[in-house]
C-alpha cells in the first residue's frame, strides 16, 4: 500500500521536498494543505512583484498542472486546525485526513511590535501575496507609507513601494541599516544610496504607537517624531509558526525541535522550513531550507541523510543596490580587516581575516567578486600568499586584469554559484557541455538561478565562458530540443514561407530530429490549424491524448465525458439522457463542473463511441472539456428571472457559445456572462468576461482562477449584443494568431500588452478582418467530433483479443 | 522458439499511432511509425502505469501521455533522466499483415 503523506504548508521548502520525492519516483499519496488559497510560489520574488518588475504569474513555482500531474490532493485555502497524533489524523474545517507520515511546514509568522494601534486597518506584515497586494494597493503616487524595520525584508518592502510612487519612511531601531549583515560603514553607504532614491531613513527610532481612529493615520516614535502614514508595514522579524505543533504537544523551543533527519518528537511527524529549530538554531534563508527539503525527501524515501547547516551569503534584492555579505564580520580579538573605500564611486569592501583565513566579507557598490570571496570563506583556503592583492579580487591573482569574465573563470569547479539551490560551477559547466545552452535549459537541468535569481548574471558568465562565441545573453529559448527556432520565429516563418504541413516545417526549418517530439508536434499542429484553416488537415497523431480521444484521460486510463450545455442551460430531456447513459455505461461518478456542465467520470475507452452516439441521439454534442479551445460560457439567469438583471445574460452567453464552440486556441478559453455588476457568473476571473449593465456590455479579458487568481482587465464597453459577439470573436482570433502554444490569454496579454490588444480591437477595419478570419476557420472546425468518431467505433476497441484465442 | 501469429492488417494501425492487443497477461501496444516500422510494447508505463498506446509517436520513440516519459521503442528503455524499461515483444510485417510472436508474449508471464 502507498504511504499516506500529509503536508501542512505549501511553501518553498515543502515544494522542493515534493519535487525531490517525485523525481526519485517515491510512491506516496500526498495531501497538501495550505492556509493561503494557492500553491507554491517563489516568496523571494515578492520584492520584484511589489516594485512592479514582475507579476505574480511569473513567480509561480508549481501550477495546477504540476500538482495534477503528480497526483497531489491540494487543499489550498483550507487551514489545518488540529493534529490527532494518537490516531494519526489531521483535521481541517472540512474533516480529517489520515497519515502515515506528517510534515509540518507552516513557515513563520511576522513578529508584530506590541505597541498601541498595531491592530488598526492599514497595518500589514510582509510575508505573502496578500500583504504584497495590500502594499501595491496602498502605493499609489503620493501615498505615505512607513516601514518599521530596516533589515532585508523591510528595505525590500520600502524600495518596492517607493518604486510605485509612494513616499516611504523606514524606521529602524538600531544605529545602522541591516546590522545583522552589514557593518556600520556599509550600512551608512546603503542609507545614503536609499536616501538619494527618495526614501526617508530614521535609524535609532523606537516605535511608541501607531495612531489612528478607524484606520492607521501616523506613527509616533519615542523621541516624539510623528510620521503620517496611509499604510504601515511591520518588517521587524519573523518567528516560527508553531501553534499547531504546540497544540499537538510536540516538543517546541523557539521552533519545532527536530533531529538531523528533521524528525519531531513524534516518530511519524517531521518539520521542515522556517518553523524548525535544529540544534538551537532557526533558519530563514532559502539555501538551508532547500537543504532540509533534500534531507527530508531522502529520509522519507528510506535513505540515510542528515541535515548539517552551512554558511550562507546575503544579497539585497533592490534594483540598483549592489550589496553582498557573507560569513562573520563582527570585530573580535585576533581578527584583522582589509578595507577598500572609494567614496566617489560609492564602493566599499571589507574582508575579515582570522589567522590565515578569510572568515567574512562585506561589499557595497561592487559585488562582482562576492562568489570568489564566499568560496574562500567556505573552504578556509589559506590566503597569506595573496594577502597584498586579495581585496582586488581574482582578476589580480595573476590573471589578466580587464576581462570581466576573469572572476568567474578563476572560480574552481566546486565554487558555489547558486546559493539557493547549492549548485556549484562544475555542475553548470557539465550541464552546458551536455547541451543545455540557454538559461532556461540550465534552470531546468540544474535549478541554478531558478529561485531568487540573483545569480543569473553569474550563470550567464559561466555560459559565456563555456560556450564562447555561441552564447547570447537572455536568448529566448528554442521551442524544444528539436529546433533552434523560438515559438515566435516558427509562427512567423510558417506564415512568411507559406509552410502548410508538419513535415514541411520540419524540413524547411531544419528540425534536428525525425518526427519531432511530444512537445513541438502539438504546437506545430495548432499553429498550422490556426494559420491555414482551409489548406491544412488536422493531424490527429500530433494531438495530446485528450484531444485525440475527445475525452479527458484519468489516472487509471479511463476517460471523462462532458456533453455541451449551451450557457449552462439544460432540459429535463437532456438530464434524462445523461442519467440513462450513466446507468448504461456504469459511470462511477457524475460530477457538476465549475463551468456549469455535467461530467461523467470513469468511462472505458471502448465505450466512448457508443456513449457519444447516445448523446448525439439526444441532441447533445461534445463539450470540448478536453480541448485547448473554447470550453464553456458560464452565465447567470439574467433579466428574465433575476430581479437585478439588466440584460439577457443567459441568452447572450448561449449566443457566444454557439459562435465560438469548436474553435481551437493556444490554450483553453473560458467565458462568463453576468447580467449585472453583482457578477454571479464570476465573469471577472475568466479568460473573457462580459458584465451587462443598463447602458450596455463591459467586456474584460485576461482573468485567471486556477493556481493563479487574477481579475480581468477592461478591454472595451459596447452597446449591443451584436458588438459583443463581434468583439469577442475578433479578440479570440487575435489570440489564436499571436499567442504561443499553451499560453492562456492572461499570459499572452501580459506579454503583448493590453493596450496593443485594445488598439487592434478598437480599429473597425482590423476588428472586422479578425472577425472574418475567425468565421472562415469556424466554417471548417465548428463540427461535432463525437458524431464523426461515433461512426467508426471499431477503431476505439483493441485490434485483437488474444485472451479469447487462448481460451479456445 | 518463436511462434508468429497474424494479428491485424498494417493499415489497421494509424501512422504515428498505436492499437491495442488484449492478452491474458495484460495489453500489448502495437505502434506504427511514420516510415511503417512496427513495434510491440507492454502498454504500461513503468512510472505510473500510463497507457503508452495513447502517447505521441515521434521517430522510433513514444511519449507516455500521463507524465511525459519517453521510451525508445527499439529497446523499451526510458530516455533522458528517467530510469525504467518497458518490455518489448518480437513483431514483424509480412505482405501487409502484422505478426506478433506468441512465444515472446508467453515469456512475459514468466518475467
Task: Describe the protein in words.
The complex is a heterodimer of chains A (808) and B (111). Among the domains of chain A are: 3-108 and 240-300, FAD/NAD(P)-binding domain (3-Layer(bba) Sandwich); 123-236, 3-Layer(bba) Sandwich (FAD/NAD(P)-binding domain); 487-543, no CATH class; 546-617, Sulfite Reductase Hemoprotein,Domain 2 (Sulfite Reductase Hemoprotein, domain 2, Alpha-Beta Complex), CATH 3.90.480; 630-781, 2-Layer Sandwich (Sulfite Reductase Hemoprotein, domain 1), CATH 3.30.413. Chain A is α/β, with parallel strands linked by helices and 808 residues long. The model of chain A has no long low-confidence stretch (mean pLDDT 88). Chain A contains 26 helices and 39 strands. By secondary structure, chain B is mainly beta. Chain B has a single domain, classed as Rieske [2Fe-2S] iron-sulphur domain (Rieske Iron-sulfur Protein, 3-layer Sandwich), CATH 2.102.10.10. In chain B, the strands form three sheets. A four-stranded antiparallel beta sheet of chain B has the order 2-3-4-8, with no helix packed on it. Chain B has a three-stranded antiparallel beta sheet with strand order 1-10-9. In chain B, strands 5-6-7 form a three-stranded antiparallel beta sheet, with no helix packed on it. The interface between A and B is large, with 31 and 40 residues.
